[in-house]
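Troubleshooting: if your tokenizer reports a length mismatch, compare your output against this known-good record of 228 residues.
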Amino acid sequence: MDIIHYLPYLLAGTLYGFTFGIIPIAGATTGLLTVYSFLDIFRADPYTLVVFTTSLVIAASVGDLFSSVVLNIPGGGGSAATMVDGYPMTRRGEAARALSAAIFAACAQGLIWGILVFSFLPYYAVVVRYFGIPEMLCFIILALTTVTFVSNQYWFRGLVGLFLGLFLGIMGTDPVTNASRFTLGWYYLASGIQILPLMSGLLAMPEILESLFLKNQPIPAPETSLLR
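Known-good structure output:
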């Protein structure tokens, strides 16, 4: 009976999250923010909100692969790296193959890591408590290094993007001293750089303008196509 009760919320969250996933730049974060407008629906049973939001996030992480692979525009911040390999395959006429690989990887990763999280939660929760500033600094350095050298061919661009991102990240209000940093007196920047407008301007608009005015050439059929 409980499964039947939560099934509509699971299906609704999946459809809702997938819709936000395929919208360029939106992603799961935007979908979660819009949930606040109809929270009263889940007031009677808070567990329905857990089911809805969980399915929303998972479906959005799968839906944003379509925008990243086909349009070269990240559906969300987490799918930006998918464009590196996915969009070149689309230009070669292998969009279906790229989407299949990305969706399979996303589903497999969700299942594997989900099982590991719930299985080892009592154990690594104890380990996490011993993490301090040195350990977190090592993780941050590892993350920045991974993002910078995601493409060995353009590592200098990665370094430039890294320093630019760090500079944009410190803009806003200092959480310790409450002083303004690099805001140039603009109140809009007091809360920092908003990631959605930034991604729209840097990644979405160039692709849209290129498609409108430069008239991209049609994508050829893959070499393995039966039509050849």
